[in-house]
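Consider this record:
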Amino acid sequence: MIIGIEFKIPNSYGNYLKRIFQGVCVERYEWEIGFEEIYKISDNNDFLSEDIFDDAIAGGATFFQAINKGKYYMIFADFKAYLPGEIHDEVKTLRDFLLSNCQMVFLCSDCEYIELCSKDKSAISTIYQNCINEKFTDIKYIDSSELDRRLYG
């Protein structure tokens, strides 16, 4: 059973979250913003000291606005999506993810390595197609044979 994808994005600034999540209804979730190091980029392509997220929990509309507004440089990111009102579980492995209330996990490490797991198969399919359209590299499915795989972020 396919439960996610992994891929590489270019190590540069841009609006990669917008491009990855294009066509996925991120607004329906409450987003837990774990460790993240994402810097806004000014119109002059200067790094700003501001993060794109202000709080540890972002409603769906806030998350959508943040990923769609301007350019940013993503170094690390750990986002977990829950349906509003659900208990936020600790998710460290794929097994944890499948047994939790968490609906989606997005991890970025070292600016370019992305892991994404989702209980919504259509979201996986949409994001996979987005990766192909955006010419991201090393695109691979993550399946349930890797239940003890640790999710890093």
